[in-house]
Specification:
- 2 copies of one chain form a homodimer.
- Chain A is α/β, with parallel strands linked by helices.
- Chain A has 2 domains: about 50 residues, Helicase, Ruva Protein, domain 3 (Orthogonal Bundle); about 140 residues, Dna Topoisomerase Vi A Subunit, Chain: A, domain 2, CATH 3.40.1360.10.
- Helix content of chain A is about 40%, strand content about 10%.
- Chain A has 7 helices and 7 strands.
- In chain A, the strands form 2 sheets. In chain A, strands 4-3-5-6-7 form a 5-stranded mixed sheet.
- In chain A, helix 1 crosses helix 2.
- Chain A is globular, with a radius of gyration of 20 Å.
- The first copy, chain A, starts with a helix and ends with a strand.
Chain lengths: ~200, ~200
């Protein structure tokens, strides 16, 4: 008995997730088999929904189920003069959870990495410059991860924005080398308070 | 911005998997969003296939894509006089991987657990007794886990099979490649009991 094809395919798919090795993927696939039919249907539906309903906001890059811009970009209650720049959607979500930032976001979609040979080309920097120029943005908060690559990216973007808006960086309440995504809300909110002009 | 409904649904589904907490589930859901469309389609297809094509073998309880009995139950090349009893499908798969057992299987679908208040009712024991009685089974190998619950279950099943077939239990001892000073006392004492002349 070798692994059935459909189970193997599911194991392969689970293996592509972050932090999931072959053994964990096997456990997950078999767990799915042992699910109640109802739970399995929900899982399939969630997958389908995510695959079909969600797209990136054309302005900021966040995920949205709206046909056009995302909930945040069209929210009149938010401060449209401040943009918080993050490398990844997850980071914006972490910031939203602390519930004290009410500006807009801009997702770069990665970081510049000298070690990995990744340049600025793939990042959504042009869109950011355009937004700053056209919408009278007063402050751009650079909230890339406090890592070497995150810093590099922040400095690169700051340079481009020089004279166009106040550019700030999150305060070093964040421990270096950590991932913004894992920061607790308090640390994150301290970092927001302590942001400095660069 | 709270989590979008479809993303939240996916996070909830991932959270139901073994060893996956909320934070990991979040990472997984966002990883799925960041997948190439192709990978996401494959994932959905694998889920659907597993959900629709796979069922339990009515005889032994293994998973199969066959309309009736599984590949092992209908394989004439296997020894139909020996049944290896496991608590879970995954265990049968581990045994198949060693490639030296060529009998049939019987999946109990759990273990009797005094601490969790689980009795023998939910286990596929009747089916096992029926198979032993009707098919002239010569040996039943009880391969439940070497834990308290696994032992209890094995003893319970062995009692029911008394006089109907040879009932054996997997040997206990030191795992191959392990280090003696890391072995727990119980394993070590089992290894001493099971010592063999060389």
């Amino acid at each position: 008995m070798k692994e059935l094809n459909s189970i193997q395919a599911l194991i392969d798919s689970f293996s592509k997730l972050p932090g999931v090795g072959v053994k964990s993927a096997e456990r997950m696939a078999y767990a799915v088999l042992a699910f109640k039919q109802e739970d399995r249907d929900e899982f399939v539906k969630a997958m389908n929904d995510v695959s079909q309903k969600i797209h990136r906001c054309p302005t900021c890059g966040l995920y949205t189920e709206n046909p056009g811009e995302c909930e945040i970009c069209i929210d009149e209650g938010r401060d449209h003069k401040i943009i918080c720049v993050v490398s990844d959607v997850k980071d914006a979500l972490a910031i939203e959870k602390m519930n004290s930032f009410h500006g807009l976001y801009h997702v770069l979609g990665g970081v510049i990495s000298a070690t990995k040979g990744i340049g600025a080309e793939g990042l959504a920097i042009d869109g950011l410059l355009k937004r700053v120029k056209e919408n009278g943005i007063e402050e751009v908060i650079l909230a890339t991860n406090p890592t070497l690559d995150g810093e590099t990216t922040a400095l690169f973007v700051a340079k481009l924005l020089e004279g166009k808006a106040n550019v700030t960086r999150l305060g070093y309440g964040l421990p270096m080398g950590s991932s913004l995504d894992y920061a607790d809300s308090l640390t994150l909110s301290k970092a927001f308070e302590g942001r400095k002009k660069i």
